[in-house]
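dude i think i finally got it to work??
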Amino acid sequence: MKNIVILAILIFTQNNFAQNSFNFDGKEVAAGTKAHFKIPVEHQGVSTFIPITIFNGAEAGETLGITAGIHGFEYPPILGAQRLIQSIDPNSLKGTVILVQLANVKSFLGRSAFVNPTDGKNLNRSFPGKEEGSISEKIAYFISNSVINRVDYFLDMHAGDAPEDLMSYGAYYRNDDMPEISATGKEMALAMGFNHVVIFDTDEKAYMKAENPSLYTSAESFKRGIPSIDIECGRLGIPDSESANQVERAVLNLLQQLNFTPKVEAVPNLPTILITNRTYNESTVDGIFYPLKKAGDYVVTGMKLGYTTDFFGSVKETVYADANGLLLLILGTPPVNKGDTLAIIGEFDQ
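look at this
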């Protein structure tokens, strides 16, 4: 009798922790395996696809969703995602990871900064998307309803686009009405190992209202009650291996923090500066911009950041810092249009 009870307990325990197959796009991904998918997207004769990898762990657990390449000119996250194909081992994974390798293939292949060249839309302003919309809207709709709606945690990965000199950081969404979800997001962001973490405070944001579109990929997941974080790593559309490595390491650290993978090495416990507010400088003219600072520089109110000339060399605008803090981003290439963001200053408690 004793042996029967022990056997029953063992069977129960095994069944309780065994992973089921994961159904994605009509295909079953067996436990302890990974599978690649090419999701077709078409609109008015224009076709593209979304490359996605499913890692279904050997042990049952939660689900993490990751997107890279929402902007196709932001290369380090895209290259980091390619590395994760090999570095995430489903045999040692608990739960499931849905990795969107490259959300915006047309932008990537067309070397198009910010927008999808087929419809001129910014995918990161298109969420939650439309089932019968343009190419970008359809991509957003698929990610919203076939990826985000299936996950317990969400990470969106970006970098400085072609003209953006950007310092690397992690970020998380917070809202006073969502304290537990916000706290989990903070823990996730800190675990990735960046020296700086930006707080996306959503208390007064119009996109948080139910009747308004979320616009941003990770804002869509946060609105759905999912702890949501971002990576910004890389600058000026440069495909440097150091930034790609940092993206890969950040994701692997996150998997350990969330107990998707064994803690084979300590997740870095680095001193982290929390950026509590961001101040934007926008151009008031068209012309040629000359930056006098670089991303990561510390600036104080009134410090000269750069200037813009007309096409004959006459200075039309001088740009000064409106706050004390770190330059999270500064325009790093000469062309500037009226209304373009010239600089973003991250403010923090000192």
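Residues 241-257 form the longest helix (17 residues).
im so relieved honestly
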